[in-house]
Amino acid sequence: MPFPCVVEDPMQDASLLPREVRLGRALCLWLSLVLVLMPEAEGSSLNCHKTCICASNIVSCSKMNLTVVPTSLPLYTAVLDLSFNSITRLRAEWTTVKLLKLHNLLLSHNGMSFVSSEAFLYVSRLRYLDLSSNRLRLLDEFIFEPLGQLEVLLLYNNHISQIDRTAFSGLLSLQKLYLSQNQISRFPLELVKDKTRPEKLSLLDVSANRIKVMSIPDLQVLPAWIKNGLYFHSNPLGCDCTLYSLLVHWHIRKLNSALDFKDDYTCVLPGPQKMTVGAFELNGDYMNCSTYKEADEETYLDQMLVLNCDTRHRDMQKTWAMPGDVPVTPHNNGSAVVLADGSLRIGPVRAEDSGVYTCFAVSKALNETLYVMVKVHNFTLVGGGETLNTAYTTLVGCLSSVVLVLIYLYLTPCHCFCCPGHSKPQRHNEDSIHSSMLSATPTHDDPATKAGLSRHVAFIDSKELQGQNGKVNPNAQEEEEEERQALQGRGRRRRSDADSISSVFSDTPIVV
């Protein structure tokens, strides 16, 4: 039989109720009181005297053996320290109210292995988030998207092996990201490459991971203020001369990433032994890489040239000096103009613009001086191209002439006496050269001989038949007669028609 906690008639005297009813009512009221005073199931209420330490807007709950985040956090909380506890999971409902003044959240050393993708919806104004030294393995997509004002994110010393490409989307104000001492095998190029990197990111630490390959050309074109804070030492990178050149260049520029950890940049030599050596030693016996040299800026006459003042820090005040330490001002040189981003534009380039240009960069923390060597070729780009084309055409013409001469000398058609089957020339079956050229009529009456002869086109130089006065050589008939008499024993010849001589001087080729 149930015992009601309240009587149906409040005017009824309680002493008149049965003893069982009075006992049941007392028990029910006691249970109700216990339930009211009992802590909530989700977590203990914040107690600034026992659970945490409250100092103004700072709430420190570090090293309190907490397994869940305390509830009923004050709305004025600006710094919340939950480090060195046992909070293994950060759920979406870890806070039920919006903490709009919270800008620092410390959750390091908790053994945390799970962070909900909605865990930061109520703390969207965070500027500093420390999730280091936990057991995180995966960074899910858009996990940090609500944190548009976050500036520093610490994720080092975890077990992170997978990072979704959209995990850091929305971090528009991110300046420093620490991902060292994890198990990352892919370099997050989207964090430093133009158009995809956070606009204000100046430090990215991916050291002591498992990265074997990096896109060196993409790193070479980065601004110096990004390379100054890009740390990737203590990774099993493959040894390569491009890696050596990159690091040596950074060291010459005194970039912090290469200067502070020079001895920690190592690589693995190719080969079965997989020997690990220092990356700065590749110019020795290991790979004999060439010594790095700064490249000069080269241009041509009448071109436009822009010189960048690639400083280690961002937003520095920059001034320029031309060759001869002449300061660049709006009035002293019309061809050199300092642009809004601090770069120097020169143009149209003249021959006297060659030389060393100096950029002076100044900020509150650093003064830096950069030198840029400019070499101007003494011709225009179009003119130079025409000169090269002319030289190429001349060379091709010369080679073609040589080839034609060689063909003429060594590859002319063979006469019949050198053909297979003709051991000796048979002059009695051939016409004399004069008769074959001066007559269009065959000189033999034998039909078989006529059929065997080929038809050729021949041109005769009229100089052979002319004397000094330009007339027909009068000795031509005598020479032909002498030739006829010399060949009497070999066959009879028939003189050519007189008209055939005049045909020599026509423009029409003679068919033989």
From TrEMBL:
Major subcellular location class: membrane
Q: Where is the signal peptide?
A: 1-43
Q: Which Gene3D superfamilies match?
A: Immunoglobulins (2.60.40.10), Ribonuclease Inhibitor (3.80.10.10)
- Which spans does this entry mark as compositional bias, Polar residues? 466-475
Q: Where is this region: Disordered?
A: 428-450, 466-512
What domain of life is recorded for the organism?
A: Eukaryota
Q: Where are the transmembrane segments?
A: none
Which Pfam families does this chain map to?
Answer: LRR_8 (PF13855)
Q: Which GO terms describe its cellular component?
A: membrane
Provide the membrane topology annotation.
Single-pass type I membrane protein
Location in or out of the cell: Membrane
Cite the entry's keywords alphabetically: Cell adhesion, Disulfide bond, Glycoprotein, Immunoglobulin domain, Leucine-rich repeat, Membrane, Repeat, Signal, Transmembrane, Transmembrane helix
Alphabetized InterPro entries for the sequence: AMIGO (IPR031283), Ig-like_dom (IPR007110), Ig-like_dom_sf (IPR036179), Ig-like_fold (IPR013783), Ig_sub (IPR003599), Leu-rich_rpt (IPR001611), Leu-rich_rpt_typical-subtyp (IPR003591), LRR_dom_sf (IPR032675)
Has keyword Coiled coil? no
Which residue ranges does the record assign to the Ig-like domain? 272-371
Q: Name a single GO biological process.
A: cell adhesion
Q: Which family does it belong to?
A: Belongs to the immunoglobulin superfamily. AMIGO family.
Q: What is this protein called?
A: Ig-like domain-containing protein
Organism, per UniProt?
Synaphobranchus kaupii
Query: Lineage, please?
Result: Eukaryota, Metazoa, Chordata, Craniata, Vertebrata
